[in-house]
Amino acid sequence: MTQAKNAADGTNAANARREKLAAARLEQRDAVLAEIPEFSRIAQALRELGESAQHEAVRREILALTETIQRSLDLRQQQVDMLAGPGISELLLPFGVAHRLQEADIVTVEQVRRALADGGAQLRRLPAVGEATCDVIRAHLEALDADKPPPAKIEIRSKKVTLTMREKVLAEKMGLSAEQAGELLKSERAERKGPAPKE
């Protein structure tokens, strides 16, 4: 009974956190959407002004400014598209893992899903991402799809290794236990070294 209650409490807490993150994402999307019409009007007005300018130098300056505003507008539209679906924050990934994805411009759940579609080969091309990190991401994605909290323990095939003090600090920042971090590091060290040469 207690175990079932704890599981239900964990699911409720995870879902509440995801709902809060989703609400923040939609609020951010709405704020960006509100800026787009104004940017469009400014870009259009500048374009018309530049095209009617008498002096070539003035015309070039205005059109260059128009292009800058248009690029800003395009970026905002891309941002709206990204914010339309769940972001990776809703996967509730350990900080370090989420940071690696963000550095590679993987910011939505759909991008993560596509990156895992080939067995994680695309993700493993990223710096410091190996099979163990893919296992962590996959487990969190499955938890989101199943409307459950992220797993407390993730089964990783590699064996335990001894952590240095720096690695322990990094593990803590990533929200991993020492055992999980050891397994993660073991796997990734092995992948960076590659297969052992044949005798």
Can you characterise this structure?
By secondary structure, this protein is mainly alpha-helical. It folds into two domains: 83 residues; 105 residues, no CATH class. Helix content is 71%, strand content 0%. α4 crosses α6. The longest helix has 51 residues. 18% of the residues are buried.
Give me the Rg, rounded: 23 Å
Helix content: over 70%
Q: What's the shape?
A: elongated
Q: How are helices and strands ordered from N to C? A: HHHHHHHH
Instruction: Provide the low-confidence segments as ranges.
Output: 157-161
Classification by helices and strands: mainly alpha
Span of the ends, CA to CA: 57 Å
Number of strands: 0
| Helix run count | 8
Largest sheet: none
The domain tally reads 2
Could you report the average pLDDT, rounded to the nearest whole number?
Answer: 72
The share of residues in extended strands comes to under 5%
What are its keywords?
about 70% helix; single chain; about 200 residues; mainly alpha; 2 domains
Helices and strands, with pairings:
Layout: H1 2-52, H2 56-83, H3 95-103, H4 109-116, H5 121-124, H6 131-145, H7 165-174, H8 178-193
